[in-house]
Structure formats: structure tokens, C-alpha cells
Amino acid sequence: MATIVNVCGARPNFMKIAPLMRAYGGHPGLRPLLVHTGQHYDHNMSELFFKQLAIPEPDVNLGVGSGSHAVQTAEIMKRFEPVVLEHRPQWVVVVGDVNSTIACGLVAKKLGIGLAHVEAGLRSFDRSMPEELNRLLTDAISDLLFVSEPSGLENLRREGIPADRIHFVGNVMIDTLRANLAHAERSPVLAEMGLEPRGYNVVTLHRPSNVDDAGTFAGIAGALDAIQQDLPTVFPMHPRTVANLPRLGLAERFAGMKHLRIVKPLGYLDFLKLMASAAVVLTDSGGIQEETTILGVWCLTLRENTERPVTVTHGTNTVVGTDPDEILRAYRACRGRTVGERRVPEKWDGRAAERIAAVLAAQEFPECG
Ligand code: UD1
């Protein structure tokens, strides 16, 4: 029996861990445990996702909460170490690129436990992004690297990661999307908000580079003002962004946008429905670039780069940056146009988690140190 400790901490982790926890069920030799670090703790950012995605109750919740990067990362490490010592797993599986990912990965490796990283190899080549540091460092110490798109393979090869550690398995986030799309179609969110399919836009913004800087955020606000005058625009707002509006003196500016609907972060099913029927999605999220690719909905990424280039080459994504004129130009270029034929990225077929579980089940157990 191989014990596998699976780590999740922040909202984008929950969609990735859900299909994995299910896929382990097909392998009686695997004993999965789930650890929630508590990095995200609000009902709408965490518990709701567990319910909607039928993720089992975590075996352990570290309850770390918010803090500076150093405090949050250190606190996760301090609280995770005794859990690993108690359970002595053969593997620790971490997903994505959040602080919980690197914190738990580092703890595992220093205790000599096998480390597997799901969504390995993605690179924005922008080391001012906290997530890029988390990705680079986690990949550098992982024993098994599960890759979601071809760019990940190239990046890991270039960084000298031995080929036998790398497995191109596809995208677990898309497993979750495919498993829940029919259910999400029944969400009443459009009727509740009085929206018509393709008659509105959706915005999400939470990256520090966009919402912590007054100048950048004010520029984006200018573009959003014009966009919401064109079509009603729904903005489910991340807590970081909510906190920044008054701090950066932008609360009145946003309150003045009469067709911009600022709402609380939505649950998975409502948000999926909202995205699927939108005219245009404007975002700085990584996962949303992937989801709109499969949904066939225009996506404008308000960043200077993406670590997910397959969403541009195969999907509906355009990386537009944060210059307001560029955002508006890109918006007008896709608004009202139908999305044409696209190629589905390789292995984004809803079976990535099954492939990962099969690889883990086939491993000889590394020695616990
Ligand atoms: C984190 C991830 C980011 C991911 C995002 C998704 C890192 C470095 N960043 O960013 O990659 O895209 O999650 O949401 O791990 N807060 C609450 N309630 C919560 C969670 C957060 O109020 O449930 C507030 C706190 O004030 C906190 C702030 O949001 O200080 C930021 O949270 P944090 O987890 O530090 O980073 P995110 O910006 O959410």
C-alpha cells in the first residue's frame, strides 16, 4: 500500500485535486490522504468548491490563513512537517503554483519523501511573478513532473530535468470542466442576474501586478469603463481586489460604472456557466485561459505574458497586456465575432487524472528518509 498525501490550499488547486482524488479510487494499492493548507479559507473561495466538486473532507486542515509570502510559506511548512512525519507517505502530490505548492514540496523533499508536481513545466519567464518562482522551484526538486501542455515538456528539457521523470498527461483542470459542464448548464445564474447568453462580458482580476499598483489598475479601470458601456459586464471580485479598491482610491471610479456588476466570488458551477455564455472574458487568471479555450469563448488576458501558450496557439486566448488602448482594441476585434474552428490541445480530454494515478500506481516506492 502506498500512502499519497495530496496538497491543496488555494482556489485554483481545488479544481485540480478533485479529479485526482477520484482517480485514485481505481487503484486499490494507493491510499490517498488530503491536506488543505487553509491558504484560502472564505466560504466562497474554498468550502463551496469542496461541496460542488464532491472533494472528500480533508484529512487534515492546517488552517494557515493569510500573511506575507514569507509568513504564509513558513507557516505552511511548519504545520505540514508533523503531518508528513506522522503519516510517512510514499508520495506527496502538489498541484499548480501557489505558495502551498512550494511550501509542501520543500517539506516533503527535505524529509526524503517522493514529490510529484501536477501542472509542471509552465513558464511565464517573468520572475517578478510569485507563481513563476513557485513553479521553477517546485519543478527543480520534484521526482515526478506531470505536464499539461507541450510547452511544459520543452521548458523542463531545457532546464535539464531527466526525461524519465516527466510525464505528459494532459490537464486536470479540464478534467473537472468536462465532468461538470452539463451540471453547470443548469445553473440559474444568468436568469438570476438578468443576463442573456452572449449579451455580457465577464472580468476577473487578482494578480498583484494588476491590482496592487494604482497606475496599472487605474488604466485597466479606464478600459473596463468603456467595455461596460458597450455590454453589461460582471466582475466577481477576488478578496485581494476588493481590499485594494479603497486603498488605491478607485472605489468611486468603479462605483460610477453603471453597467459593471461587482459580485462576490462565485462557486464553480455558476462561474462555469457565466463563462460559457459570455461574449468576452477579460482576466489575469491562468486557469480561465484554459477553460475558455475548451468552452470556445473569447479570452483577453490582461498580462504581458502567459505560461500557457497552447491557449493562444490552439484556443481563444489573446495576451493583450494592460495598456487601456490595447485592451479596447482587442475587445473590439473579437466582440460580436463568432469563434471559429479550433484544435483541442492534446490530451485535454478529461482523463489527465487517470493517467497520473496510473503512473503513481506503477512506481516503485522511494525510500522514506
Ligand atoms: C493565490 C495564488 C495565486 C492564485 C490565487 C487564486 C500564491 C502566491 N498566489 O493568490 O497564484 O491565482 O490564489 O485566488 O499562492 N483572502 C481572503 N479570503 C480567502 C483568501 C484570501 O480574504 O479565502 C485575502 C487575504 O486578504 C489575502 C489576500 O486575499 O491576504 C491574498 O490571498 P493569498 O492567498 O495570499 O493570495 P491570492 O492573491 O489569493
What do these coordinates show?
The longest helix is centred in the first third of the chain and has 19 residues, at 69-87. The model has no long low-confidence stretch (mean pLDDT 97). Helix 10 runs parallel beside helix 16. It is globular, with a radius of gyration of 20 Å. It is built from 17 helices and 13 strands. The chain has 369 residues and is of the alpha/beta class. The chain has helices at residues 11-23, 47-52, 69-87, 99-110, 130-141, 150-158, 172-185, 189-193, 208-211, 214-230, 239-247, 251-255, 268-276, 286-295, 310-313, 324-334, 352-361; strands spanning 2-8, 30-36, 60-61, 91-95, 114-120, 144-147, 166-168, 201-204, 233-236, 260-263, 280-283, 298-301, 317-319. The strands form two sheets. A seven-stranded parallel sheet has the order 3-2-1-4-5-6-7, sandwiched between helices. A six-stranded parallel sheet has the order 10-9-8-11-12-13, with helices on both faces. 46% of the residues lie in helices and 16% in strands. Bound molecules: uridine-diphosphate-N-acetylglucosamine.
Furnish the topology, listing elements before pairings:
Blueprint: E1 2-8, H1 11-23, E2 30-36, H2 47-52, E3 60-61, H3 69-87, E4 91-95, H4 99-110, E5 114-120, H5 130-141, E6 144-147, H6 150-158, E7 166-168, H7 172-185, H8 189-193, E8 201-204, H9 208-211, H10 214-230, E9 233-236, H11 239-247, H12 251-255, E10 260-263, H13 268-276, E11 280-283, H14 286-295, E12 298-301, H15 310-313, E13 317-319, H16 324-334, H17 352-361
Parallel strand pairs: 1-2, 1-4, 2-3, 4-5, 5-6, 6-7, 8-9, 8-11, 9-10, 11-12, 12-13
The protein binds uridine-diphosphate-N-acetylglucosamine.
